[in-house]
Amino acid sequence: MSAIDKAKNKAEELIGKAKEAVGGASGNKDLKHEGQGDQAKGNVKQGGENVKDAASDTKDKLTGD
């Protein structure tokens, strides 16, 4: 995937961290949990991107591209 997709995933993770922090500081459990969910989604997406990159690298090595 592109660097833009990776940046979006990282941004989602960072926004989630901010929401979690604000929610925790203000006692807003819903916001805190929403932030944790956003972080999890960002992490899962980043993991998927890493798997795709590794598969592409392996394919390139096997085919000589």
Written overview of the protein:
- The protein is an all-alpha fold.
- Helix content is 91%, strand content 0%.
- Helix 1 packs antiparallel against helix 2 (29-63).
- The protein is rod-shaped, with a radius of gyration of 16 Å.
- The mean pLDDT is 91.
Give a topology summary.
Blueprint: H1 3-26, H2 29-63
What separation lies between the terminal Cα atoms?
17 Å
How much of the sequence is in beta strands? Answer: under 5%
Measured as a percent range, the helix fraction is over 70%
Largest sheet: none
Total beta strands:
0
Structural class: mainly alpha
**Low-confidence sequence ranges:** none
Pick out its properties.
0% strand, 65 residues, mainly alpha
Question: What's the short story on this structure?
Answer:
The chain is an all-alpha fold.
